[in-house]
Specification:
Blueprint lengths: L1 H10 L4 E7 H9 L3 E2 L12 H13 L6 E5 L5 E5 L1 H10 L42 H9 L1 E7 L7 H9 L8 H12 L1 H10 L3 H6 L4 H5 L2 H12 L4 H6 L3 H14 L5 H19 L6 E3 L4 E3 L4 H13 L8 H16 L1 H6 L6 H15 L3
Parallel strand pairs: 2-4, 3-5
Antiparallel strand pairs: 1-5, 3-4, 6-7
Amino acid sequence: MALQQEIENRAKQIHTDGYALSIGELMSLYRENEIDIHPEFQRFFRWTPIQKTKLIESILLGIPIPPIFVSQREDGVWDVIDGLQRLSTILEFAGLLRDSDKNPKPGSKLLGTEYLPSLEGKYWQKDEDQENSFDQSQRLIIKRAKLGVQIIKKESDKDTKFELFQRLNTGGTSLTEQEIRNCILVMINKEFYKWLSEISQNGNFKSTIPVTDRAFEEQYDVELALRYFVYKTITVEEVKANKDVGKLLTDKMVEFASNNVFDFDSEKGNFTKAFLLLDKAFGEDVFRKWDETKNKFMGPFSIAAFEVIVTGLAKNLANFHDTPESIENLRTIIKSVSKNETFIENSGNGKRASTRLPHFLPLGQKLFAK
């Protein structure tokens, strides 16, 4: 009966409803600010012009479109948690989409397709180019087309929409785990999202994480900044209790953003100091592995080295200062990480974060306490 009880208990926490709404009705809801598609998400959802065109083509041809999922907020507004790209593509084409400053974006232009080559260069409506504008009948085809809307009602457990967002947007999309976290953070606490994004632009921090342009585009710098704040607070017991470190990062982020305990000014000051010291110590080499025989750092950025060094310094930051003597002490400790037996045994290919961290958290604490 344990499984059945778990199913019944969890099901009671989720309240849903569903409608089939016309695209015209969804446009009206958007105009009246009764549906929120979070313009901040646009940088994470990267549909190409041909993908956008094919969506419009599908609507014109009567091809069914997957439903969108929304969560009803306390104020009654619907938060879009899946289907944002579909809905924003339609709104952008119709010239209704607004950017994060609430300014209207110009209506998009379509490309030709295999089935409808004459879509090439077409707009929803462009007064100065009527020849390349949809006519009234074509606009009505889109406005009268129906979209299924699945609603997570406000009576549901508060974490349901975030869990659903992760499930629906992991796997079939190009979003990374951190891009999904960022979207969740926007829904919980937009100011925290802006703060974390600004923190990740710190010059000293960026100098110490020589990762690829693609990694930056996919928000890996924001993830590393989040890891700094998580690593300095989590315990070994928390890691062992949660084998999925990605989920642990998300849960801690939600915890930071949902309460009033997180001290923005103090945490920013500590982060700034830590990466100033790390940048002065070794710059972009600081999270590479030290090769004693060659007397230099080798290889790419090492997440394992990051875990030990960031944890150790963050937990012992008061011991270090921006002085030549303190920086030299920091250099000595950082070099010692790569030679440490615990580090060697628990880093390298095949070692997952969930198995590394229970060893690396106390290791960092010990090494940097000297």
